[in-house]
Amino acid sequence: MLEAGEFATVIELAAAERLDRSFVFHVLQLTLLAPDLVEAILDGRQSMGVQLQALVRGLPVEWERQRELMATSC
To answer: Domain tally for the chain?
Structure first.
Protein backbone atom coordinates (compact mmCIF):
# COMPACT_ATOMS: atom_id res chain seq x y z
CA MET A 1 0.00 0.00 0.00
CA LEU A 2 2.79 2.40 0.84
CA GLU A 3 4.97 1.09 -1.96
CA ALA A 4 2.14 1.42 -4.49
CA GLY A 5 1.58 5.01 -3.40
CA GLU A 6 -1.89 4.37 -2.04
CA PHE A 7 -0.84 6.03 1.21
CA ALA A 8 1.87 8.62 1.67
CA THR A 9 2.66 7.90 5.32
CA VAL A 10 2.47 5.18 7.94
CA ILE A 11 -0.04 7.35 9.79
CA GLU A 12 -2.37 7.36 6.77
CA LEU A 13 -1.99 3.61 6.35
CA ALA A 14 -2.69 2.96 10.04
CA ALA A 15 -5.78 5.17 9.99
CA ALA A 16 -7.14 3.50 6.85
CA GLU A 17 -6.62 0.03 8.33
CA ARG A 18 -7.85 1.14 11.78
CA LEU A 19 -4.62 0.08 13.43
CA ASP A 20 -2.41 1.80 15.95
CA ARG A 21 0.33 3.64 14.06
CA SER A 22 2.97 2.34 16.46
CA PHE A 23 1.92 -1.23 15.66
CA VAL A 24 2.09 -0.56 11.91
CA PHE A 25 5.52 1.02 12.26
CA HIS A 26 6.85 -1.98 14.20
CA VAL A 27 5.40 -4.48 11.75
CA LEU A 28 6.90 -2.57 8.83
CA GLN A 29 10.31 -2.91 10.47
CA LEU A 30 10.04 -6.65 9.86
CA THR A 31 10.43 -5.94 6.13
CA LEU A 32 14.07 -5.06 6.90
CA LEU A 33 14.94 -8.57 8.09
CA ALA A 34 17.54 -10.43 6.07
CA PRO A 35 15.85 -12.81 3.61
CA ASP A 36 17.55 -15.88 5.07
CA LEU A 37 16.30 -14.96 8.55
CA VAL A 38 12.75 -14.57 7.25
CA GLU A 39 13.02 -17.98 5.59
CA ALA A 40 14.36 -19.57 8.79
CA ILE A 41 11.50 -18.09 10.83
CA LEU A 42 8.87 -19.24 8.34
CA ASP A 43 10.41 -22.72 8.28
CA GLY A 44 10.59 -22.84 12.09
CA ARG A 45 14.39 -23.03 12.07
CA GLN A 46 15.03 -19.86 14.10
CA SER A 47 16.88 -19.94 17.40
CA MET A 48 14.68 -20.87 20.34
CA GLY A 49 15.17 -17.44 21.92
CA VAL A 50 13.91 -15.49 18.91
CA GLN A 51 10.61 -13.84 19.76
CA LEU A 52 8.38 -11.49 17.78
CA GLN A 53 8.47 -8.92 20.56
CA ALA A 54 12.24 -8.58 20.23
CA LEU A 55 12.04 -8.38 16.45
CA VAL A 56 9.54 -5.55 16.35
CA ARG A 57 11.40 -3.57 18.98
CA GLY A 58 14.07 -3.09 16.42
CA LEU A 59 16.96 -4.90 14.93
CA PRO A 60 19.86 -3.27 13.17
CA VAL A 61 19.33 -2.77 9.45
CA GLU A 62 22.65 -4.46 8.66
CA TRP A 63 21.87 -8.05 7.78
CA GLU A 64 25.14 -9.44 9.16
CA ARG A 65 24.48 -7.80 12.55
CA GLN A 66 20.92 -9.21 12.51
CA ARG A 67 22.36 -12.69 11.97
CA GLU A 68 24.77 -12.22 14.86
CA LEU A 69 22.01 -11.10 17.21
CA MET A 70 19.66 -13.88 16.12
CA ALA A 71 22.38 -16.50 16.63
CA THR A 72 23.05 -15.33 20.18
CA SER A 73 19.40 -15.06 21.27
CA CYS A 74 19.22 -18.64 22.55
So the answer is: 2
**Domain extent for 42:** 34-74
Which residues fall within 8 angstroms of residue 19, CB to CB, at 6 or more apart? none
CB 56 within 8 A of CB 29: yes
0.85 surpassed by pTM: no
Q: Torsion angle of alpha carbons 23, 57, 69, 64, nearest 10°?
A: 60
Q: Note the pLDDT tens digit of each residue in 21-46.
A: 988 988 888 888 999 989 988 898 88
SS3 content of the chain, % helix, strand, coil (to 5): 60, 0, 40
Domain match, 39 and 17 both: no
Q: Where are the beta strands (DSSP E) in the chain?
A: none
Q: How confident is the model at residue 16 (pLDDT cuts 50, 70, 90)?
A: very high
Same domain, 28 and 38: no
